[in-house]
Amino acid sequence: MTDKTGRRLSISFEFFPPATPEGAMRLWRSVERLAPLAPDYVSVTYGAGGTTRDRTRNAIKAILERARLQVAGHLTCVGATRAETLAEADGYRRLGARRIVALRGDPPRGAERFEPHPDGFRNAAELTRALREAGHDRISVAAYPEFHPESASPAADLDNLKRKLDAGADSAITQFFFDNAHFLRFRDLAAKAGIDAPIHPGILPIENFAKMKRFAAGCGASVPESLETAYANADEQGMTETLSRAICAEQCDALRSEGVEHIHFYTLNNPDLPYDVCRALGVEPQPLGAAAGGAA
Ligand code: FAD
């Protein structure tokens, strides 16, 4: 879509596969609420250690059957042979999912380091190359504005992103961040390193501040001191939702002013904040039956 000032914006939403009937209802409510915003695609995560393999596939199937949306299935290298991983990707394609988010995955809970399966892919670049060779052609990979916690240096992390794009990915989605300076610096460094594929910011609307801090600690995203203070004050006044809406809309708007044309929202299957933020950015709901993939 194009807003009143002529800036273009497309969006995508990430969901996780539900584990319970109540979770399935919540996922479905999220899809129903966000589908009218005509995202380019929605993506479904793949649980640590491959634990949600069947659930991811089932969620992809349900979304494709019930909503007119393009779907990206996440796929990791964890706990599976190369053949099993590629079979899963082929399964996504048979269901009608046209995109893949190719990842290495985190070590299973309790394990300190990622250990590849003896016959498995060792990293996301290897997985991406094999997916391309198997005919998958719309592949996104992960990028880290504050750098991946295991990377030897920022330069090594950028080399790794380049390897993944050279292996055949067509875009990257970032880990979430709250200070746009991290994203903008990363985007500049990537451009200097010769990376010209789109790097889409991954944005996490803050539904629950304490929970968000646990996520952030786990993935190396920093939380600015100013947010700590603002949420402590807002909590006392029962204003956290209002604050979250304002902070997220402002963060996205500032990114658009820096030329960002696609924003990927981590919804955690909570649709209301992403919905409100998109509306604040000028994304209009489309009539039912309008084609997915960004509205004019
Ligand atoms: P890689 O790109 O393979 O990199 C992993 C680390 O190894 C990096 O530090 C990299 O610099 C280093 N490295 C890789 N190759 C080399 C090499 N040849 N030489 C030296 N160093 C190397 N996790 C899930 O389990 N399920 C999901 O659905 C999921 N979705 C995600 C979606 C997004 C958008 C993002 C940003 C992350 C997601 N994750 C998910 C988390 C991700 O799996 C972890 O961050 C994981 O630790 C790294 O995955 P990667 O694909 O970035 O790995």
From TrEMBL:
Cofactor(s) for this UniProt protein: FAD
What PANTHER family does UniProt report for this protein, alphabetically? METHYLENETETRAHYDROFOLATE REDUCTASE, METHYLENETETRAHYDROFOLATE REDUCTASE (NADPH)
Give the reaction(s) catalysed: (6S)-5-methyl-5,6,7,8-tetrahydrofolate + NAD(+) = (6R)-5,10-methylene-5,6,7,8-tetrahydrofolate + NADH + H(+)
Give the pathway listed in the UniProt entry for this protein: Amino-acid biosynthesis; L-methionine biosynthesis via de novo pathway; One-carbon metabolism; tetrahydrofolate interconversion
What EC number(s) is this enzyme filed under? 1.5.1.54
A GO molecular-function annotation: FAD binding
Q: Which GO BP annotation is one of this protein's?
A: methionine biosynthetic process
Per UniProt, which keywords does this protein have? Amino-acid biosynthesis, FAD, Flavoprotein, Methionine biosynthesis, NAD, Oxidoreductase
Family, according to the entry, reads as follows: Belongs to the methylenetetrahydrofolate reductase family.
Q: What protein name does the entry list?
A: Methylenetetrahydrofolate reductase
Organism superkingdom = Bacteria
- Organism of provenance: Albimonas pacifica
Q: Which InterPro entries does the record associate with it? A: FAD-linked_oxidoreductase-like, Mehydrof_redctse-like, MTHF_reductase_bac
**What cellular component terms from Gene Ontology apply here?**
cytosol
Instruction: Check the record and name the CDD domains matching this protein.
Output: MTHFR
